[in-house]
Amino acid sequence: MERIDPSCPRTPCPSVQQRLAAIWAEVFSLDRVEPDDDFFDLGGYSLIAGKIAGRVQDAFGVDLPASVLFAHPTVAALSREIQSRQSPAAARSAITRTASTGRTALSLIQEEVWFHHRLAPENVAYNTQWSLRVTGPFEVDVFERAISALTERHEMLRTTFGEDEEGQAWQQVHDPAPARVARYDLAGLPPAAQAERIEQIVRDETSRPFDLARLPLFRWIAIQLAPQEHDLLVVEHHFVHDGWSFTVHTRELAELYGALRAGREAALPELPVQYADFARWQRAALDSGEMAHHRHYWHEALAGTPPVLALPADRPRPKHQRFRGAEIRLDLPAAVANPLRDLCRGANATLYMGMLAGFVTWLHRYTGERDLCVGSGFANRQRETEDLIGMFVNSVVLRCRVAGSASYLDVLREVRQAVLGASEHQAYPFVRLVQELRPGRDLSVNPLFQVMFSFHDTPARQLDFDGSPVSILERANGSAKTDLNIVVIPRAERLLGGRDEHADQVTVFWEYNSDLFDPATAEQMVEQYRLILTAAVADPAAPVWRLPIVSAAQRELLDQYARGAA
């Protein structure tokens, strides 16, 4: 651990500044970072801030909330701030390795998913699915061996789940076993028939639930389209997956595949811990009071939260959540996304905050509510768990208030404050918070929030399998976790080490509860959100009540109707 010299609190000590610059360079995948380089100009956002904070804790023994980095966004300024923290906050306890034997308790994060599984065992809302299109030479046999090696490396990929006679849920790690990849050869089909057959395979595989008591809790399907083209479909249960895990999963598969083809050892570091170690650490930290300050924050932030958000719906809400849904894709063009990036950078905010501010603005306009609670999935990763596959993502509640005269910039400031607070306290398990706050239990709605807005922005390099480039396609499975579940994939923010022609584009997946909303209603929601973002970029100081949610063409039709009615 680097010692901080108290003799230079105002001017950054060279050793501190140099070490911090090296940390930034590592996290941003740059050769060099200068003292005056700005966190936001380098493309920084909350996940990057979390990685820097973990490394600062290791190097200097100083607790560094994201809010501190956002307020001191250069290496020089942050170095001074680190030096000023002469009495660092008590560090969290380390996660340590313990051999897994027999059944162990779930993490509190897994308990949340287990609860929903018990409500609807056949639902696929907690499955996730992607397609990887590989162009070039590809050996399915070698890929199958790579999956086997990955399964041996990560215990979570060979873990099953169940409960005892008293209803206590457990997880159990099993011995490694060879993985199997289902295979289809469609190379002889004409393009139209090929496309139809692919969609049928995808529908069949993504609609099939997992038996949590049987391995594996993932499925890989290899579809050969041509001698040099394969479509790889992966379906995973959320118990073994989150957005960060997918990046680890594909990165390590690529390394293992290349190593097996070349007959060399894979260049993967030894994993310091496994998922069961995290589960044990989390429960011990809660029992010891280590998370008491997180608990205090959330109880204070969510005191007096409003009742269920009443989104105007096309049909009455069913008595029980059925998790039925559909999804609309919006590709936000660079002409909107890049000015929004610039606007956020000028406000020391991230693109996530800017797009969430647009969503909160839309929610306010759509419902008329001023006190809004939006759920979001935060990565919840520590240094020890950065390279692990498993479900670490934790739901947090972002409470945002919109004043009557608020502008988009005002909403952005409110959202920024909520996100920074939640980022600092994201480790407190959502399921425990629900148990403590005890909102009125209603099986027809999600507790504390009914809409979600999340970013899939885990940094990732361009993917290839031993030189054969890979493109990734997100898939839907006809489910919805909440009334609305918005997932945003910012291409530029995720990409390390290169760009493509779509890098500045932002993709929005608008998942909606089809028990409540018709497709036309959901389409209208998406268009209104797009209009609000576009107008906010053009005039961020305008009151939000003036931002249009009806297009010029729609307004003309309404005017014509009004004139005809008159």
Q: What is the structure about, briefly put?
A:
This protein is an alpha+beta fold. Helix content is 40%, strand content 18%.
Topology:
Layout: H1 14-28, H2 46-60, H3 66-71, H4 75-84, E1 103-105, H5 108-119, E2 127-135, H6 140-153, E3 159-163, E4 169-173, E5 181-185, H7 191-206, E6 218-226, E7 229-237, H8 243-262, H9 275-288, H10 292-301, E8 325-332, H11 334-346, H12 351-367, E9 371-378, E10 394-401, H13 408-424, H14 430-437, E11 451-455, E12 460-461, E13 464-465, E14 468-474, E15 484-490, H15 491-494, E16 495-496, E17 506-513, H16 519-538, H17 552-565
Parallel strand pairs: 5-6, 11-15, 12-16
Antiparallel strand pairs: 1-4, 2-7, 2-14, 3-4, 6-7, 8-17, 9-10, 13-14, 15-17
Largest sheet: 6 strands, mixed
The first-level CATH class of the largest domain is given as: Alpha Beta
- Rg from C-alpha positions? 24 Å
Q: Give me the number of helical elements.
A: 17
Assembly status: single chain
Helix content: 25-40%
CATH-defined fold name of the largest domain: Chloramphenicol Acetyltransferase
Shape: globular
Q: Name the CATH architecture of the largest domain.
A: 2-Layer Sandwich
As a percent range, the share of strand residues is 15-25%
- Span of the ends, CA to CA: 77 Å
Total domains, how many?
3
Across the major sheet, the strand order is 5-6-7-2-14-13
Give the CATH H-level superfamily of the largest domain: Nonribosomal peptide synthetase, condensation domain
User: Structural class of the helix and strand makeup?
Assistant: alpha+beta
Annotation, overall tally of beta strands: 17
Flag low-confidence runs. Answer: 1-10
Q: Average pLDDT across residues? A: 90
